[in-house]
Amino acid sequence: MTEATTGRRARSGHGARFTVRAAVLALSLLPGSGSAQAVDGWKNSSELSFVRTGGNAASSTLGISTTVTRSWERTELKMEAGGIRTRTTRFERIAVGTGSDYRIEEKSDSEVSAENYHARVRVDRRFSERTSVFVQSGWTRNTFSGIRHRLVNVAGVSTRWLEREGQRLRTAYGFTHTVERDVVPDPEDSGRFLGLRLSTDYWLRVTGNAEWSSTLAVDGNGSDRSDLRADWVNAFSVAMNERLALKTSFRTTFDNQPALARLPLRSPAGEDDGTVLVPREKLDRVFTVALVITF
Length: 295
Known about the structure:
By secondary structure, this protein is mainly beta. It has one domain: Porin (Beta Barrel). The chain is 5% helix and 69% strand. It has one helix spanning 15-29; strands spanning 40-53, 57-71, 75-97, 102-126, 131-142, 147-164, 167-182, 192-205, 210-221, 224-239, 244-255, 260-266, 272-279, 283-294. The strands form 2 sheets. Strands 1-2-3-4-5-6-7-8-9-10-11-14 form a 12-stranded antiparallel beta barrel. It has a two-stranded antiparallel sheet with strand order 12-13. The termini are far apart. The model is unreliable at 1-27 and 32-38 (pLDDT under 50).
């Protein structure tokens, strides 16, 4: 059996110390019992989308996500979780008998054709009108992009450039510690590294009941400058009433050094000759339409 691999990022450790320090900092940022009363109570925004098709082929897609926030006088807490799962059923039909007398036999095969889950928690502590410090931890699972699980811890500084009734703009800069396990392990990749993150978060009220948001996060590997990843989400929502809204979003993720896939290798004569490791696609895109429930 032969295997061909491409050189990928070299990664370093120090993860345990970074994770412990981030956890201690997160606890210190939360307000204690002597803090001022909460400026805003708990808020929740949940999204639900479902699509099902039938006929010669069948598929169903279910998407669920929720965001929970709470704000104190100088502290903000945000928790997010969600996922998308698609199952596809393919039918195979054959005729058994003669040309004038036959019966139809049908076989079906169902499999999961898309799957993506995520969870994040972030704590911001404001120490001036425009500047905050924050810690964040985020987990991702996307097996069809080759990621069994990825955990990214971030600690940094956030700046508010705009903060008005119909418009907000915030940027953030931080140090990251990443732990990644791929579906097909890369023999040249330790799966851990320290890096940097730059991010922007923009929100605009377009009309009285419509709003647009755009978030972008770019991660870099401190040991390999060519190892860059980006996550860009644009969303447009229209409120139907105080609690319900329709939301369309388009998410683009980019990985300059994507996870590997194992492919069967065949000789020019058509004989099996082991497997090879090849990089997956660098770009993934997801378009969703969802019902948003806020309370």
